[in-house]
Structure formats: structure tokens, C-alpha cells
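Recall from the previous chapter that SMILES is a line notation for molecules. Here it describes zinc ion.
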Amino acid sequence: MTGHAARQADCARLDPQFVEDLISANRILYDQGVLDAYGHVSARDPDDPNRFWLSRSMPPALVSPEDLLEFDIGGEPIAAGGRKVFFERYIHSEVYRSRRDVMAVLHCHSPGLIPFCNSATALRPMTQPAGFLGAGAPVFELREVDDGADMLIRTPAQGRALAQALGRSAVVLIRGHGAVIVGNSIRQAVWRGIYSEMNAKQQLEAARLGPIRFLSPEEAEHAAKTVPNDPARTWTLWKHRVSRTSD
Ligand SMILES: [Zn+2]
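With both inputs in hand, we obtain:
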């Protein structure tokens, strides 16, 4: 990284496992088609609930520990040192502020989700792993708070309105833009990102066959609470793929 290669990473004080998971999350979400050159994933500081960690503005697949920056709960970097930050960082700060249970936030524009952002059809769970979609993901209408009309979330007020639309849900879709997906850990946010995208594709396929019999709200609630008996299985596989491709 030019100009900063010699400096110690800002995240050096953190648990190495936390750093490794956040770096892996960036790479896995790219590998799985949830993030592309854009979008971002952050994690709340494990030692300070009023801080979170997010990369500088760059493609997620290329993020290294040196690129992770610390932010306060207002969405401002603690010490960016001239590094460029995401202007949509207020998505993260306002979700962390309003949801104390949330430990990781993903913002993506993944292609499978966009049809559900822009239509009246709700994204609803097709299978057990997507039970976190509950009775259907809410849709946030940015036009109501977008004074610049550029369809981007650039201010704390816009981030706050988005967090309100998210409510207690795991996923909120943003019309004409993408989605925000939250988790109680980095790994859960990654899981939800991947299964949201997969569910969207399955739902579109099923719609071609006629009316869809979704998981009922009760089934979804039960599925969302179910802890897999091998929770590391998916993470191990997804991580293996990005470890090999980065060799
Ligand atoms: Zn965006």
C-alpha cells in the first residue's frame, strides 16, 4: 500500500482472530458474488461498542489488515491519515447506534437482490438457511430522505432513516440501490449475505413456476433460531476458496 507500507496497522491492538475474520469476510463476499468492486463490510470493535472497523475506500477483495480503519459511532474515522474513506460509512455507524445486538454490517449491491429492491414482491425465505428473512425483508425508500437525489446514503440523517427501516430485521433492501445485512458476528453477517443472494435467485426461479409456497413466518422464526450443529462448516469452505485464490 503506497505511503503506508512501513506503518504499523491501526488494527494491531485487536484480537488477531477478529482481524482475520474481517479480512476473510471481505474476500469471501467478493468470491461468493455478494460484493464486487463496491460495497463494504464492517465489524463493531470487540472491546469498545462505540467504535467499529471498516476498510478504507477500496475494492473489498483487495483488503489487508493495513487497510482497516477505526471509526467512532458518529461514523468519523479516528485517524484516517489521508486515506480515503467510504462516504456511505453512515450506514454502518447508524445501524451500530440503533442496534446494540449487531456486531457486523454488510452493505452490498448484489445482482440477485436488486429485482426485490425495485418491485412490490417481498424477498421471503425459500429454505431453512434463509429463515432470517422472516416474513419478508423491508424495503427502504431513499427518496424520502435523499435531498441530493443521487441515490446514495451520504449523511448521518440518511443512515438513521435506513436503520429505522431495518428495525429488528436482518436485512433491509434499498430501492434502486442494494441492501444492508446485519449479524451478531462477522461470520453470521457473511452467512446472511450469501444466503440472501442465493434465496433471491431461488425465489425468482420459483416465480416462473407459479405461486410460491414460502417458509411460513413460524417456520422462518424457528429456522432463524436454529444453530447449525457444525457452524464452522460453511465458513471453512468459503475461506478455503479465498485462501487458495490469494496464493
Ligand atoms: Zn451503496
